[in-house]
Give the backbone structure.
Amino acid sequence: MIICAHQSSLRALAKYIEGISDEDIREVRFSTGELAIYRFFEGRLVRENTEISAEKKRNL
């Protein structure tokens, strides 16, 4: 599944999925075109990456 959205709505999703606190979510930023990959693992979504190399982006 691919989700494409504005930074504010992406932060809301990340907050919910990752259980980020109200204070800490203020520091979360998504750059234009940034990929965030989540995998379903042991009954929950887990963020796979914090930074993706240019080579990996080309192969997605």
Notes: The longest helix spans residues 7-18. The chain has one domain: 7-59. The chain has a mean pLDDT of 81.
